[in-house]
Automatic annotation (TrEMBL):
Domain DNA mismatch repair proteins mutS family: 335-520
Protein's name in the database: DNA mismatch repair protein MutS
Source species: Flagellimonas yonaguniensis
Superkingdom per UniProt: Bacteria
DNA mismatch repair protein MutS core domain mapped to chain residues: 12-316
UniProt feature coiled coil, ranges: 616-662
InterPro entries (alphabetical): DNA_mismatch_repair_MutS_C, DNA_mismatch_repair_MutS_core, DNA_mismatch_repair_MutS_sf, MutS, MutS2, P-loop_NTPase
This protein's UniProt keywords: ATP-binding, Coiled coil, DNA-binding, Nucleotide-binding
Region (Disordered): 541-560
Pfam families to which the protein is assigned, alphabetical: MutS_V
C-alpha cells in the first residue's frame, strides 16, 4: 500500500476527522500526534492498529475497563538526558516515575485479560520493564516531591545539624524575648518576622539598650525590628548548613540523573506507547459516538459499504437531533465503476465523499460507521477531483485545473486505484466536455480501476449502460414534492428534473415550453423516460412501505387475537373446574341423603357411622391427590413468575442504563446559554430563582432579594432572558 496524496485528504475533509479525534485525546502529546495521522503504507501494521482500536472499543461494553493512561510528557527531560553532565529537576524525575508506573499497570492489566485484548497485550508486552528506574527515584524523592533524608548519609547528617541549630536559635531568641520583655523594652506585639527571621519588636526609645542587628522599622517609626545578638552566630551557622544542604541535594540529583540516563531509549518507548494508547482510546471514543466498527477485510478487491454514514455529517446531525440517511454501495470486479446522476442537492456529492472518507479513515487505522456485514478492501491509490478547484496562483480556470488533474489520473490510474470525481466533465462546452469525459472514463475502465463519478451528462449515463462492468445509479427524488430522499439506487440513471424544478420555483410554463423546443427532442425524451422510471421507482418504494405497514398491523392483530384466545381458554378452564366441583358436591349430597334415608327406616347407628366414615375417607383421599397436584402446579407457577420477574427486572435495568446514557449525552450536547445582566437564573438542581447583577470572567453575582451570591456561570441554568 502506498501513501495517499494530501490533496485527496483535503478534498475528503480528513483533517476535520483528525481534529475531532484529537479533541478526544487526554494528553497534549496525544493531541499533537493525532493531528498528524496518515494512511498506513504497511498493511500488517494497519491491521494491528485497527484491531487494537476495535479491542479498546469493546472495553466500553464490558466490565474489564482499561486503566487510565494519562501522563505528563517528558520531552524536555529526554532532551537533557542526551546531554552529558546535565541534571534533571525533581519534577522531571516524578514524571518519569509516573510514566513507568502507568506502563507497569497496563502490562499487568493486559496480562490478566489477554484473552479479551490479545493485540493490546502484545503491544504492551513488547516493552521491557526495569523496576530499578522507579526504585532509584523513590529512594531519593518522597511522594510530596521532597528529597528524602535517607537519600545520602551526608544529607541526613546536615539536616540533623540544621535541626539542632534551629533549636538553638529558638532557645536563644526566646531567652532574649523574655529578658527584654521583663525590662519593658518591647512593643505590645513583642516579635515579628522579617526576611524569614524572627525579630524583636523594640520600642524606638529603647533601641540602644537592645544588642543585635537592626533589620528595619515600622511605617510610623515607633517600632525597631532587631535580631538579638545571641542568635546571630547561630543564624550564620544555619546559613552555612543550608548552603551545604543545597550542594548535597544537587550532588544527589546529578547521581540520580546518571543512573537514569542509560534508560533513555526505554523511556522514549514508554512515552510512545502511552501516546499511542491515548490516540487508540480517542479513536475508540470517536467510533463509539458514531457507531463505528471494524468491517470484514477481504482480498477479493470488493468494496461493499452497507448502511454507510458520513461521519462528520452524522455527528453534526446527531447534535441537532436530525436524521442522517445511510447509503449502501458495492464495487467489485464485475461492477467496477458507478455513474451517479440525478438533480442537484440530491446527495450525490455527499455519497461520493462518504465512500472516499470512509476508505481513507479505514486505511489510517480509524473505525468506520457502517453495518457489521460490510466488507472492504484496500487501495494503493485514492484519486479525487471534488469541488471547484480554480487556481488563482497559477491563473488556471476550473476546467484547466480539472484537465491537469485528469492528466495526473491517467499517469497514476491502475487496477489498485479508487477514483472519485464530482461533476465529471463540467467546466467546458457540454458536448465537447462530455465527449472528452467519455474518453477519460473509457481509459479508466480499460485499466480496471474502481471508481464512482457524479454527472449530469447523458452520454456518460449511456456509456455506463453499455459497458458490462459499469453501472448507472441515481439519487431518488420525489417527483410530486420535488424534494430529495437521499437514497442511492443502483441500476438506472437519474433525471436532472431540470424543467420540473424550474416549474416548482415559479418559472412560467410558456418559458419552459420554449426552452424544451430549443433542444433536441431525443434529449428531452431520454430525460423524460428517466424521470418516468424514477417516478415508477418512487411508487414502488411507497407501495413497499405501505405493505410493510400492513404487515406490521396484521402482526399486531394476530398478537391481539392470540392474547384474546389465551384469556378465553383460561376462562373455559376455570368454568370446567367449577362444573367438576359442583358435580362432586351433588354426588356427595346424594350419598349422604341415601345414608340418612336408610337410618330413618331401620334406626341403626353403626351402619350409618360406618357409611359416613367411608364417605369421608374416600373424599380425603381425593383431596390429598388434588392438593399434591395443586402444590406442584403452584410451585411451577411460582418458578415461572420468578423467571419472568427476573427478565423484566433485567430489561428495566438495561432500559434505565440506556436512558441515563442518553440523558447524560443530551446534557453534554445541550448548548450552553450566553448569560446577560438582568437574566433570571437558578442554580443547577436548585429551586430559588435570582437575577444576575454583574458578570465578570465566567463568574456571576446573583441577587435573590434577601442576599446575593457569587457563582460560576457553569453552575447556572437560564430561567428567563432579560427582555
Amino acid at each position: 500500500m502506498r501513501n495517499i496524496h494530501p490533496k485527496t485528504l483535503q478534498d475528503l475533509e480528513f483533517p476535520m476527522v483528525l481534529t475531532q479525534i484529537a479533541a478526544r485525546c487526554n494528553t497534549e502529546l496525544g493531541k499533537e500526534d493525532a493531528l498528524s495521522i496518515q494512511p498506513f503504507r504497511n498493511k500488517e501494521e494497519l491491521m494491528s492498529v485497527l484491531g487494537q482500536t476495535s479491542e479498546y472499543l469493546a472495553s466500553f461494553s464490558n466490565d474489564n475497563r482499561i486503566p487510565n493512561h494519562g501522563f505528563d510528557h517528558i520531552n524536555s527531560e529526554l532532551g537533557l538526558l542526551k546531554i552529558d553532565n546535565s541534571t534533571l529537576e525533581i519534577s522531571g524525575f516524578r514524571k518519569i516515575g509516573d510514566i513507568y508506573k502507568t506502563v507497569a499497570i497496563h502490562q499487568k492489566f493486559f496480562k490478566k485479560f489477554k484473552e479479551y485484548y490479545p493485540l493490546l497485550f502484545d503491544k504492551v508486552n513488547a516493552l521491557e520493564l526495569h523496576p530499578e528506574i522507579p526504585d532509584a527515584i523513590d529512594d531519593v524523592i518522597d511522594k510530596f516531591g521532597e528529597i528524602k533524608d535517607s537519600a545520602s548519609d551526608e544529607l541526613c547528617y546536615i539536616r540533623s545539624q540544621i535541626n539542632t541549630v534551629r533549636s538553638k536559635i529558638n532557645q536563644s531568641f526566646s531567652a532574649a524575648l523574655g529578658r527584654y520583655q521583663s525590662s519593658d523594652f518591647l512593643d505590645e506585639i513583642r516579635e515579628s518576622v522579617m526576611e524569614n527571621r524572627r525579630v524583636l519588636a523594640v520600642k524606638a526609645m529603647h533601641r540602644k539598650k537592645v544588642k543585635g542587628t537592626v533589620m528595619g522599622t515600622s511605617k510610623t517609626g515607633s517600632i525597631v525590628y532587631i535580631v538579638p545578638e545571641a542568635t546571630l552566630s547561630y543564624t550564620r551557622e544555619l546559613n552555612n548548613l543550608e548552603f551545604e544542604e543545597k550542594e548535597e541535594i544537587q550532588r544527589i540529583l546529578n547521581k540520580l540523573t546518571d543512573e537514569i540516563r542509560p534508560y533513555l531509549e526505554l523511556l522514549q518507548e514508554y512515552q510512545k506507547y502511552l501516546s499511542d494508547t491515548d490516540i487508540t482510546a480517542a479513536k475508540a471514543k470517536y467510533a463509539n459516538e458514531m457507531n463505528g466498527l471494524l468491517p470484514e477485510i477481504n482480498e477479493e478487491r470488493e468494496l461493499f459499504l452497507r448502511d454507510a454514514y458520513h461521519p462528520l455529517l452524522y455527528l453534526s446531525n446527531k447534535r441537532k437531533n436530525e436524521k442522517t440517511w445511510p447509503q449502501t454501495i458495492k464495487l467489485h470486479q464485475e461492477n467496477r465503476i458507478i455513474v451517479i446522476s440525478g438533480p442537484n442537492a440530491g446527495g450525490k456529492s455527499i455519497t461520493l465523499k462518504t465512500i472516499g472518507l470512509l476508505q481513507v479513515m479505514l486505511q489510517s487505522g480509524i473505525l468506520i460507521p457502517v453495518h457489521e456485514r460490510s466488507s472492504v478492501c484496500f487501495f494503493d491509490k485514492i484519486l479525487t477531483d471534488i469541488g471547484d478547484n480554480q487556481s488563482i496562483e497559477n491563473h488556471l480556470s476550473t476546467y484547466s485545473y480539472r484537465l491537469k488533474n485528469m492528466n495526473h489520473f491517467l499517469r497514476k490510474c491502475n487496477d489498485k486505484t479508487l477514483f472519485l470525481i464530482d461533476e465529471f466533465g463540467t467546466g467546458s462546452d457540454p458536448e465537447l466536455g462530455g465527449a472528452l469525459a467519455e474518453a477519460f472514463l473509457e481509459v479508466f475502465y480499460e485499466r480496471e480501476a474502481y471508481g464512482v463519478i457524479t454527472t449530469h451528462y447523458a452520454n456518460l449515463k449511456a456509456l455506463a449502460d453499455e459497458l458490462p462492468h459499469a453501472t448507472n445509479a441515481n439519487m431518488l427524488f420525489n417527483s410530486k414534492t420535488l424534494e430529495p430522499t437521499f437514497q442511492l439506487v443502483l441500476g438506472e440513471a437519474g433525471s436532472s428534473f431540470t424543467f420540473e424544478v424550474a416549474q416548482k420555483n415559479g418559472i412560467p410554463y410558456s418559458l419552459i415550453n420554449k426552452a424544451k423546443k430549443k433542444i433536441e427532442r431525443g434529449k428531452v425524451r431520454f430525460d423524460a423516460t428517466i424521470a418516468k422510471l424514477q417516478k415508477e421507482r418512487s411508487k414502488m418504494v411507497e407501495t413497499g412501505s405501505k405493505l410493510k405497514e400492513e404487515e406490521t398491523k396484521a402482526r399486531e392483530e394476530n398478537e391481539r387475537l392470540e392474547q384474546l384466545n389465551s384469556k378465553i381458554k383460561s376462562k373455559l378452564e376455570s368454568y370446567q373446574e367449577m362444573y367438576d366441583h359442583n358435580q362432586r358436591m351433588i354426588q356427595l349430597g346424594n350419598k349422604l341423603n341415601t345414608a340418612a334415608e336408610k337410618y330413618f327406616i331401620d334406626k341403626k347407628k353403626r351402619p350409618l357411622i360406618s357409611e359416613m366414615l367411608r364417605i369421608v375417607e374416600t373424599e380425603n383421599s381425593k383431596r390429598k391427590k388434588t392438593t399434591a397436584k395443586k402444590a406442584k402446579a403452584k410451585q411451577q407457577e411460582k418458578k415461572q413468575v420468578a423467571q419472568e420477574l427476573e427478565q423484566k427486572i433485567k430489561k428495566v435495568r438495561v432500559e434505565k442504563k440506556i436512558k441515563k446514557k442518553e440523558e447524560i449525552q443530551a446534557e453534554k450536547n445541550k448548548p450552553r446559554p450566553v448569560f446577560k445582566i438582568g437574566d433570571r437564573v437558578r442554580l443547577k438542581d436548585g429551586k430559588a430563582v435570582g437575577t444576575i447583577d454583574t458578570l465578570e470572567k465566567g463568574k456571576a453575582v446573583v441577587n435573590y432579594g434577601m442576599f446575593t451570591t457569587n457563582v460560576s456561570v457553569d453552575q447556572l441554568d437560564l430561567v428567563e432572558s432579560k427582555k
